[in-house]
Specification:
The complex is a heterodimer of chains A (53) and B (317). Helices cover 77% and strands 0% of the residues of chain A. Chain A has 53 residues and is mainly α. The longest helix of chain B is centred in the C-terminal third of the chain and has 30 residues, at 287-316. The chains are: A mainly alpha (53), B mainly alpha (317).
Chain lengths: 53, 317
Protein backbone atom coordinates (compact mmCIF):
# COMPACT_ATOMS: atom_id res chain seq x y z
CA UNK A 1 0.00 0.00 0.00
CA UNK A 2 1.45 3.40 -0.90
CA UNK A 3 1.37 6.45 1.39
CA UNK A 4 -1.15 8.04 -0.98
CA UNK A 5 -3.59 5.12 -0.53
CA UNK A 6 -3.20 5.12 3.23
CA UNK A 7 -3.62 8.87 3.71
CA UNK A 8 -5.59 10.13 0.65
CA UNK A 9 -6.10 13.63 2.13
CA UNK A 10 -2.39 14.30 2.57
CA UNK A 11 -0.32 16.03 -0.06
CA UNK A 12 2.97 14.12 -0.11
CA UNK A 13 6.24 15.96 -0.66
CA UNK A 14 9.63 14.30 -1.01
CA UNK A 15 10.65 15.33 2.54
CA UNK A 16 7.37 14.18 3.99
CA UNK A 17 7.58 10.78 2.29
CA UNK A 18 11.19 10.27 3.41
CA UNK A 19 10.43 11.22 7.03
CA UNK A 20 7.37 8.96 7.04
CA UNK A 21 9.32 5.97 5.70
CA UNK A 22 12.26 6.55 8.04
CA UNK A 23 9.99 6.52 11.05
CA UNK A 24 8.00 3.50 9.90
CA UNK A 25 11.25 1.64 9.26
CA UNK A 26 12.48 2.44 12.78
CA UNK A 27 9.28 1.14 14.33
CA UNK A 28 9.35 -2.02 12.24
CA UNK A 29 12.96 -2.71 13.18
CA UNK A 30 12.15 -2.21 16.87
CA UNK A 31 9.23 -4.64 16.56
CA UNK A 32 11.40 -7.18 14.76
CA UNK A 33 14.06 -6.93 17.50
CA UNK A 34 11.37 -7.47 20.14
CA UNK A 35 9.96 -10.54 18.38
CA UNK A 36 13.43 -11.98 17.95
CA UNK A 37 14.22 -11.38 21.64
CA UNK A 38 10.95 -13.10 22.58
CA UNK A 39 11.83 -16.18 20.51
CA UNK A 40 15.28 -16.38 22.13
CA UNK A 41 13.69 -15.90 25.57
CA UNK A 42 11.19 -18.73 25.07
CA UNK A 43 13.97 -20.98 23.73
CA UNK A 44 16.18 -20.43 26.80
CA UNK A 45 13.20 -20.81 29.18
CA UNK A 46 12.40 -24.16 27.54
CA UNK A 47 16.03 -25.33 27.89
CA UNK A 48 16.19 -24.24 31.56
CA UNK A 49 12.82 -25.84 32.41
CA UNK A 50 13.77 -29.11 30.70
CA UNK A 51 16.99 -29.10 32.71
CA UNK A 52 14.92 -28.98 35.92
CA UNK A 53 15.62 -25.30 36.67
CA UNK B 1 17.79 23.22 5.19
CA UNK B 2 16.29 24.14 1.83
CA UNK B 3 13.07 26.06 1.74
CA UNK B 4 10.69 23.87 -0.22
CA UNK B 5 7.49 25.73 0.46
CA UNK B 6 4.41 23.98 -0.91
CA UNK B 7 0.68 24.53 -0.91
CA UNK B 8 -1.45 22.17 1.15
CA UNK B 9 -5.00 21.25 0.17
CA UNK B 10 -6.52 23.48 2.85
CA UNK B 11 -4.72 26.52 1.51
CA UNK B 12 -2.19 26.87 4.35
CA UNK B 13 1.47 27.27 3.54
CA UNK B 14 4.21 25.32 5.22
CA UNK B 15 7.89 24.46 4.74
CA UNK B 16 10.09 21.37 4.72
CA UNK B 17 10.43 21.26 8.52
CA UNK B 18 6.68 21.30 8.98
CA UNK B 19 6.40 18.61 6.29
CA UNK B 20 8.72 16.34 8.20
CA UNK B 21 6.87 17.01 11.45
CA UNK B 22 3.58 16.26 9.71
CA UNK B 23 4.90 13.00 8.30
CA UNK B 24 6.18 12.06 11.73
CA UNK B 25 2.67 12.49 13.14
CA UNK B 26 1.21 10.42 10.30
CA UNK B 27 3.64 7.58 10.89
CA UNK B 28 2.35 7.38 14.46
CA UNK B 29 4.13 7.29 17.79
CA UNK B 30 7.84 6.83 18.28
CA UNK B 31 9.32 3.99 20.32
CA UNK B 32 10.07 6.42 23.19
CA UNK B 33 6.37 7.34 23.34
CA UNK B 34 5.49 3.70 23.94
CA UNK B 35 8.18 3.50 26.60
CA UNK B 36 6.58 6.54 28.26
CA UNK B 37 3.21 4.77 28.21
CA UNK B 38 4.74 2.12 30.48
CA UNK B 39 5.35 4.72 33.25
CA UNK B 40 9.06 3.82 33.58
CA UNK B 41 9.56 5.70 36.86
CA UNK B 42 6.75 3.78 38.57
CA UNK B 43 8.05 0.61 36.96
CA UNK B 44 11.46 1.09 38.62
CA UNK B 45 10.00 0.89 42.12
CA UNK B 46 7.72 -1.99 41.14
CA UNK B 47 10.64 -4.00 39.76
CA UNK B 48 12.76 -3.19 42.78
CA UNK B 49 10.15 -4.34 45.31
CA UNK B 50 9.36 -7.45 43.24
CA UNK B 51 13.03 -8.34 43.13
CA UNK B 52 13.32 -7.80 46.89
CA UNK B 53 10.37 -10.17 47.43
CA UNK B 54 12.18 -12.81 45.38
CA UNK B 55 15.42 -12.45 47.32
CA UNK B 56 13.69 -12.47 50.71
CA UNK B 57 11.77 -15.65 49.89
CA UNK B 58 13.11 -18.98 51.08
CA UNK B 59 14.05 -21.37 48.28
CA UNK B 60 15.83 -21.22 44.97
CA UNK B 61 14.87 -20.05 41.50
CA UNK B 62 17.13 -20.46 38.48
CA UNK B 63 18.73 -17.02 37.80
CA UNK B 64 17.38 -16.90 34.24
CA UNK B 65 13.84 -17.72 35.40
CA UNK B 66 14.23 -15.08 38.13
CA UNK B 67 15.17 -12.55 35.44
CA UNK B 68 12.11 -13.61 33.42
CA UNK B 69 9.94 -13.15 36.52
CA UNK B 70 11.31 -9.62 37.01
CA UNK B 71 10.71 -8.89 33.31
CA UNK B 72 7.11 -10.11 33.61
CA UNK B 73 6.50 -7.96 36.71
CA UNK B 74 7.97 -4.93 34.90
CA UNK B 75 6.02 -5.47 31.67
CA UNK B 76 2.80 -6.28 33.54
CA UNK B 77 3.06 -3.10 35.62
CA UNK B 78 3.88 -1.06 32.52
CA UNK B 79 0.95 -2.55 30.63
CA UNK B 80 -1.44 -1.60 33.43
CA UNK B 81 0.05 1.90 33.29
CA UNK B 82 -0.63 2.11 29.54
CA UNK B 83 -4.26 1.04 30.00
CA UNK B 84 -4.57 3.57 32.84
CA UNK B 85 -3.30 6.31 30.50
CA UNK B 86 -5.84 5.24 27.89
CA UNK B 87 -8.73 5.38 30.37
CA UNK B 88 -7.61 8.62 32.03
CA UNK B 89 -6.75 10.51 28.83
CA UNK B 90 -9.55 13.04 29.42
CA UNK B 91 -8.40 14.04 32.92
CA UNK B 92 -4.72 13.77 32.00
CA UNK B 93 -5.29 16.50 29.42
CA UNK B 94 -6.47 19.02 32.04
CA UNK B 95 -3.83 18.26 34.67
CA UNK B 96 -0.52 20.10 34.36
CA UNK B 97 1.47 17.11 35.67
CA UNK B 98 0.05 14.73 33.07
CA UNK B 99 -0.80 16.95 30.06
CA UNK B 100 2.50 16.04 28.36
CA UNK B 101 1.76 12.31 28.36
CA UNK B 102 1.74 10.60 24.95
CA UNK B 103 -2.07 10.41 24.53
CA UNK B 104 -3.19 13.91 25.63
CA UNK B 105 -0.31 15.43 23.67
CA UNK B 106 -1.47 13.57 20.54
CA UNK B 107 1.68 11.51 20.01
CA UNK B 108 -0.09 8.17 20.52
CA UNK B 109 -3.63 7.33 19.40
CA UNK B 110 -5.83 6.16 22.33
CA UNK B 111 -6.74 2.85 20.66
CA UNK B 112 -3.05 2.20 19.97
CA UNK B 113 -2.24 2.67 23.67
CA UNK B 114 -5.09 0.38 24.71
CA UNK B 115 -4.00 -2.37 22.31
CA UNK B 116 -0.41 -2.02 23.46
CA UNK B 117 -1.40 -2.31 27.13
CA UNK B 118 -3.75 -5.28 26.69
CA UNK B 119 -1.28 -7.25 24.56
CA UNK B 120 1.61 -6.64 26.98
CA UNK B 121 -0.56 -7.49 29.97
CA UNK B 122 -1.62 -10.84 28.47
CA UNK B 123 1.95 -11.50 27.35
CA UNK B 124 3.41 -10.88 30.82
CA UNK B 125 0.87 -13.10 32.60
CA UNK B 126 1.20 -15.96 30.10
CA UNK B 127 5.00 -15.84 30.15
CA UNK B 128 5.05 -15.75 33.97
CA UNK B 129 2.78 -18.81 34.07
CA UNK B 130 4.71 -20.81 31.48
CA UNK B 131 8.22 -19.86 32.60
CA UNK B 132 7.89 -19.50 36.38
CA UNK B 133 4.62 -20.70 37.97
CA UNK B 134 0.90 -20.08 37.77
CA UNK B 135 0.52 -18.70 41.31
CA UNK B 136 2.85 -15.83 40.43
CA UNK B 137 1.01 -15.43 37.10
CA UNK B 138 -2.39 -15.32 38.86
CA UNK B 139 -1.12 -12.68 41.30
CA UNK B 140 0.26 -10.63 38.40
CA UNK B 141 -3.10 -10.86 36.62
CA UNK B 142 -4.87 -9.88 39.86
CA UNK B 143 -2.56 -6.88 40.34
CA UNK B 144 -3.14 -5.71 36.76
CA UNK B 145 -6.89 -6.26 36.97
CA UNK B 146 -7.06 -4.47 40.31
CA UNK B 147 -5.17 -1.46 38.99
CA UNK B 148 -7.22 -1.17 35.81
CA UNK B 149 -10.74 -2.13 36.92
CA UNK B 150 -10.85 -1.41 40.66
CA UNK B 151 -8.55 1.62 40.95
CA UNK B 152 -8.65 3.32 37.53
CA UNK B 153 -12.19 2.60 36.33
CA UNK B 154 -14.06 2.35 39.62
CA UNK B 155 -12.47 4.15 42.58
CA UNK B 156 -10.30 6.93 41.21
CA UNK B 157 -13.12 9.25 40.16
CA UNK B 158 -15.60 8.24 42.87
CA UNK B 159 -14.06 8.27 46.32
CA UNK B 160 -11.31 10.03 48.30
CA UNK B 161 -10.31 6.54 49.48
CA UNK B 162 -9.24 5.79 45.88
CA UNK B 163 -5.54 5.46 46.58
CA UNK B 164 -6.08 3.65 49.90
CA UNK B 165 -7.94 0.72 48.35
CA UNK B 166 -6.39 1.11 44.90
CA UNK B 167 -2.95 1.16 46.49
CA UNK B 168 -3.29 -2.60 46.88
CA UNK B 169 -2.40 -2.93 43.18
CA UNK B 170 1.03 -1.44 43.82
CA UNK B 171 1.52 -3.66 46.87
CA UNK B 172 1.42 -6.90 44.88
CA UNK B 173 4.96 -6.94 43.32
CA UNK B 174 6.91 -8.29 46.37
CA UNK B 175 4.15 -10.88 46.81
CA UNK B 176 4.53 -11.87 43.16
CA UNK B 177 8.31 -12.10 43.61
CA UNK B 178 7.82 -14.26 46.69
CA UNK B 179 5.35 -16.51 44.86
CA UNK B 180 7.77 -16.83 41.91
CA UNK B 181 10.27 -18.51 44.27
CA UNK B 182 8.01 -20.41 46.67
CA UNK B 183 5.01 -21.09 44.43
CA UNK B 184 2.61 -19.83 47.11
CA UNK B 185 1.32 -17.04 49.33
CA UNK B 186 2.31 -16.88 53.00
CA UNK B 187 2.14 -14.61 56.05
CA UNK B 188 5.60 -13.33 55.18
CA UNK B 189 4.58 -12.21 51.70
CA UNK B 190 1.42 -10.66 53.15
CA UNK B 191 3.62 -8.56 55.45
CA UNK B 192 5.53 -7.26 52.40
CA UNK B 193 2.17 -6.50 50.79
CA UNK B 194 1.04 -4.64 53.94
CA UNK B 195 4.26 -2.62 53.99
CA UNK B 196 3.54 -1.06 50.59
CA UNK B 197 -0.21 -0.92 51.20
CA UNK B 198 0.17 1.30 54.28
CA UNK B 199 3.02 3.29 52.71
CA UNK B 200 0.91 4.29 49.68
CA UNK B 201 -1.61 6.73 51.29
CA UNK B 202 0.95 9.06 52.94
CA UNK B 203 3.06 8.88 49.78
CA UNK B 204 0.25 9.87 47.41
CA UNK B 205 -1.42 12.33 49.74
CA UNK B 206 1.92 14.16 50.18
CA UNK B 207 1.91 14.62 46.39
CA UNK B 208 -1.75 15.58 46.22
CA UNK B 209 -1.28 18.23 48.95
CA UNK B 210 0.68 20.39 46.53
CA UNK B 211 -1.13 19.34 43.34
CA UNK B 212 -4.67 19.54 44.74
CA UNK B 213 -5.51 22.39 42.35
CA UNK B 214 -4.77 20.05 39.45
CA UNK B 215 -6.90 17.27 40.93
CA UNK B 216 -9.71 19.72 41.68
CA UNK B 217 -9.75 20.97 38.07
CA UNK B 218 -9.86 17.38 36.81
CA UNK B 219 -12.69 16.50 39.21
CA UNK B 220 -10.72 13.79 40.99
CA UNK B 221 -11.92 13.50 44.60
CA UNK B 222 -8.49 13.27 46.21
CA UNK B 223 -8.64 13.63 49.99
CA UNK B 224 -7.21 17.21 50.13
CA UNK B 225 -9.84 18.29 47.57
CA UNK B 226 -12.76 16.65 49.40
CA UNK B 227 -11.82 16.76 53.10
CA UNK B 228 -9.26 19.58 53.10
CA UNK B 229 -5.55 19.72 53.76
CA UNK B 230 -5.77 19.52 57.56
CA UNK B 231 -7.77 16.26 57.55
CA UNK B 232 -5.41 14.81 54.93
CA UNK B 233 -2.37 15.61 57.03
CA UNK B 234 -3.92 13.90 60.06
CA UNK B 235 -4.64 10.80 57.96
CA UNK B 236 -1.06 10.81 56.68
CA UNK B 237 0.29 10.81 60.23
CA UNK B 238 -2.07 7.97 61.16
CA UNK B 239 -0.81 5.79 58.28
CA UNK B 240 2.85 6.43 59.10
CA UNK B 241 2.11 5.34 62.69
CA UNK B 242 0.44 2.14 61.43
CA UNK B 243 3.42 1.53 59.18
CA UNK B 244 5.91 1.92 62.05
CA UNK B 245 5.53 -1.63 63.49
CA UNK B 246 4.90 -3.26 60.08
CA UNK B 247 8.27 -2.39 58.52
CA UNK B 248 10.37 -4.30 61.12
CA UNK B 249 7.95 -7.30 60.99
CA UNK B 250 10.11 -9.27 58.49
CA UNK B 251 12.72 -9.51 61.27
CA UNK B 252 10.12 -10.71 63.80
CA UNK B 253 8.94 -13.34 61.32
CA UNK B 254 12.51 -14.49 60.79
CA UNK B 255 13.10 -13.66 57.13
CA UNK B 256 15.24 -10.57 57.69
CA UNK B 257 18.12 -9.85 60.05
CA UNK B 258 18.55 -7.40 62.95
CA UNK B 259 20.31 -4.85 60.74
CA UNK B 260 17.21 -4.71 58.55
CA UNK B 261 15.01 -4.27 61.64
CA UNK B 262 17.15 -1.42 62.98
CA UNK B 263 17.23 0.43 59.64
CA UNK B 264 13.48 -0.10 59.08
CA UNK B 265 12.68 1.21 62.57
CA UNK B 266 14.82 4.34 62.14
CA UNK B 267 13.39 5.02 58.66
CA UNK B 268 9.87 4.53 60.04
CA UNK B 269 10.49 7.01 62.83
CA UNK B 270 11.79 9.55 60.30
CA UNK B 271 8.64 8.97 58.23
CA UNK B 272 6.54 9.80 61.30
CA UNK B 273 8.65 12.91 61.91
CA UNK B 274 8.09 13.95 58.28
CA UNK B 275 4.33 13.50 58.75
CA UNK B 276 4.39 15.62 61.93
CA UNK B 277 6.28 18.34 60.05
CA UNK B 278 3.65 18.25 57.32
CA UNK B 279 0.89 18.54 59.94
CA UNK B 280 2.55 21.61 61.46
CA UNK B 281 3.39 23.23 58.13
CA UNK B 282 1.12 26.20 57.38
CA UNK B 283 3.09 27.23 54.27
CA UNK B 284 0.83 27.62 51.23
CA UNK B 285 3.48 26.06 48.97
CA UNK B 286 3.42 22.90 51.11
CA UNK B 287 7.18 22.65 51.34
CA UNK B 288 7.06 19.96 54.05
CA UNK B 289 4.71 17.85 51.89
CA UNK B 290 7.11 18.10 48.95
CA UNK B 291 9.94 16.95 51.17
CA UNK B 292 7.83 14.13 52.58
CA UNK B 293 6.94 12.94 49.07
CA UNK B 294 10.65 12.71 48.23
CA UNK B 295 11.40 11.02 51.52
CA UNK B 296 8.58 8.48 51.05
CA UNK B 297 10.25 7.22 47.85
CA UNK B 298 13.62 7.06 49.60
CA UNK B 299 11.97 5.24 52.52
CA UNK B 300 10.53 2.46 50.38
CA UNK B 301 13.72 2.20 48.35
CA UNK B 302 15.90 1.84 51.46
CA UNK B 303 13.60 -0.61 53.26
CA UNK B 304 13.51 -2.94 50.26
CA UNK B 305 17.22 -2.37 49.57
CA UNK B 306 17.88 -3.63 53.10
CA UNK B 307 15.71 -6.69 52.37
CA UNK B 308 17.78 -7.31 49.22
CA UNK B 309 21.07 -6.91 51.11
CA UNK B 310 19.76 -9.23 53.83
CA UNK B 311 18.55 -11.80 51.32
CA UNK B 312 21.81 -11.66 49.33
CA UNK B 313 23.87 -12.03 52.51
CA UNK B 314 21.71 -14.99 53.56
CA UNK B 315 22.20 -16.63 50.17
CA UNK B 316 25.98 -16.26 50.45
CA UNK B 317 26.19 -17.76 53.97
Amino acid sequence: MSNNDEFPDVEWTKEKREAFRRKRRGKNLALMALLFAFVVLVYIVAIVRMGGG
Amino acid sequence: MTDTTVDLSNGQRTDAAADVAGATMLAGAQVCDFVQLLKPRVMTLVVFTGFAGMLAAPGHLHPFLAAVAVLCIAVGAGAAGAINMWYDRDIDAVMRRTAGRPIPSGRVAPEEALGFGVVLSLFSVMLMGLAVNWTAAALLALANGFYVFVYTAWLKRRTPQNIVIGGAAGAFPPMIGWAAVTGGVSVESLVLFALIFFWTPPHFWALSLYTDGDYGRAGIPMLPVVAGRRATKRQMLLYTLVLLPIAPAPFLLGFAGPLYAAVAAVLGLLFVVAAVRVLRDEDERQRAARQMFGYSILYLFLVFAMLIVDGAAGALV
